[in-house]
Amino acid sequence: MTHRRLPRMGALRLRLLTGAALVIGAPLSQLAFAQAAQAQTTPASAATQTATAQAPQSTPQTPGADGLTPDAVFVDADSAQRQGDVVSAQGSAEDRVMARFQDHSLRAQDVTYDLQSQVATASGDAELTAPDGSVVHAERIELDSDLKAGVAVDLATRLSNGSSLMAATAVRRSETVSELNRVIFTPCPICTVDGATKTPSVSIQASKAVQNEELRAILYRDVVFRLGGVPIFYLPAFSHPDPTVDRASGFLVPWGDYQAGRGVSLELPYLHVISPSEDVLVSPQFNTKVAPLLNLQWRKRFADGMIVARGGATYGRSFGDFDLDGDGDAESNVRFGDRTTRSYLLAHGAFDPDGPWRWGFTAERVSDKTLFDRYDVRDAYQDNGLYYGDSRRLISQIYAERQTKRSYLSVAAFTMQSLRVAQFDPVTPALNVFEDDKTLPLVAPLIEARWEPEGPVFGGRLRLRGSAVALTRDAYVGFPTLAPELIPGGPTDGLPGVDSRRVTGQAEWRRAMISPIGVRWEPFVDLRADVYSVDDLPPAMGVENETYTRARASAGVDVSYPLYRRLSASSDLILEPMAQLSISNKADLDRRIPNEDSQITELDHLSLFRMDRFPGYDLLEGGLRFTAGARATLHWDEVRSASLFIGRSMRADDQDEYLTPIPDDPTRLYDPSGLASRTSDWVVQGSFNPSDRMRGWFHATIDGNGEIRRAEATVDGRWGRRNLASLSYIVDHSNPLDGPENRNYEFVQLSGHQFVYGNWGVAVTGIADLERDIVTRSEVGLLYDDDCFRIELGWRRDNTRVRPTGPAEGVYIRLNLATFGSSGYDRNDMR
């Protein structure tokens, strides 16, 4: 054999090895070589040979990010030589041959290329990095130049998503099929943070694996599933989607639990991908004590929107807790009624085409008001669409919006179905009385509009608003829709529902001015007019139909004076006293106007300074008012901070129209809004962030006697690397009288998990009803969690009064596996 260094003469042309590549385009090996090309080389130095080669081109090519055209290859090696038709390049363990081509990088100790057979070989710690970050290691690689066949020995690859694949040998059978022998695949890390090897939490070991890129799947033979290195399950054959596939058809991780009402329940979700923009999820729930429930979901993404339709159905009897023997105790798991079809539908769509218009819809209905509770249907109450159904209310709507820089218009129509309990049965929860859907209105249409001129008006900002709504009811509703004195005496069954229509127009002008000493003055003028038309009033009123008009003119000024002081290089203090003075004509609160949208008022630091502090239009405020408050904000540094707001409003006259009857004693009135007297409730609100691992927030309204009317507080904390907890408290003591109709409440909610040893920990969740002195919901579980595997096994109890089966206890299992899926399913995510 002869050995020759590459000549230093630029005139000599020879066939030069221009590259050898192992190309990874999928989670298993996809082997490829760059074409050999005619090249003219010039050695860089006596120790290193570099060359850039490019095949002749009929048309110019655009260089990539590395400066190479698609057919060009850059080679850097200690030495390169030719022996007959074999061209080779050598490096060392410390300084391997490096080749760069088509955005790939190849390193190996020895690279050879046979010009006659066009077979290339890379050996000695061969490593290829693909553009997506995937890295392949092999002791030896052999490939031909047409990309259709190849062999790799001692293959190990780490993909961009963190998965790892190892095989004794790998053979590239064609452009779409790769075959591997003695395979280990894991989605988990195989090294610790300091580089030491570790046993993966989850792995698949197989005698043979085949990747079919047309199927976008990996097929295994003689499969052993290992958990922490321990074999736990064997299958003669198994397949799963290619890890680079975003979504693929197949079974998702099942969901299982046990409850006394249903027995052992197992949900087996199967995802069928129809296209990149469409899929179907079939998720049957099998129960040992009751009929199964079939859940289906269809998702479709369009160029300008998407539709998600979810539903479920079963055929069987109802079940719940009944007091069969009359001893005052309910017997559990009672089957009653005829077999019938029970189903639900939860669908929504949203479309946002080019231009100012967008539109959407929701369709939500259930055949049985307790179906979600009996079968524990997850995520039944979601916020989709323009308007949301509140707690335990489903909403079906269609809407359209138009928005520009200066205007907004929305038109909607909707109807609701209530799953709320109107009257609880203290012994037999299956006999709870639910809210009548006929008492809920059909809202069609509901129109909201805003417009602002482009330039200033009299130096300030002018905003015009408009609103219109029509409500139709099938059944009569008294208080709180109608004022108590208008409700006829005696039974109201058979009375028609009160229908109403409203049109509102409003104009607001504001101008901000800052004085030389920094005081901010913002005078404003507000004009508003309402027209109401009411039909089917109670006969006791002596009139069936009536039209009412009212108007209000207001003027006032907002004043604030922010004060700033630097306390240190990293801390500062901001004090901001603020006040509002306004005067209006007296509010025209005609008691015959139904109160549909202003029944619940929550005062906070924002609504306290609004002209109308009620959430809707049916109630409004007037007269002379003065509102004052102050906010203090302290920043210790970029992370730690705290703020506090305190404010209150005063008016010239009491507003008895805001008083409502106490449910347990209609002859007495109380003020749930905190706005009926001359002085409103105090509003106290704040937040604190003592570190980057802890934050909190609180809000409270306090009456003139110092009693808390409503309050809410939340604290979130993190410690260690993964430990966390959240504690929340909420209270409403606005009703001054105890009784069965009293809706006061007081809850404490706790959730968190603590790792005790390594990846092992405990997880707890609980909600305590302090008003009734019971724990309504609780979960306690044993948790294992690492970088790719999480399992939680625990016990839970549901003691809410809406459950027709009474208190439910059972065991739950939650499982999440990286790459293979999880026990949860993102119903709105579609790439």
- Helical run tally: 1
Mean pLDDT value: 83
Based on CA atoms alone, the radius of gyration comes out at: 36 Å
Mind summarizing the main beta sheet?
Answer: 26 strands, antiparallel, barrel
| End-to-end Cα distance | 58 Å
Can you give the helix content as a percent range?
A: under 10%
Structural class computed from helices and strand pairing = mainly beta
Low-confidence stretches: 1-48, 52-57, 821-831
Strand content: over 45%
Would you count the extended β strands for me?
52
Question: What would you call the shape?
Answer: globular
Characterise this structure.
This protein has 831 residues and is mainly beta. The strands form 5 sheets. It has a 26-stranded antiparallel barrel. It has a 15-stranded antiparallel beta sheet that branches. The N terminus and C terminus are likely disordered.
What are its keywords?
831 residues; mainly beta; 26-stranded antiparallel beta barrel; 15-stranded antiparallel β-sheet; 52 strands; 1% helix; globular; disordered C terminus
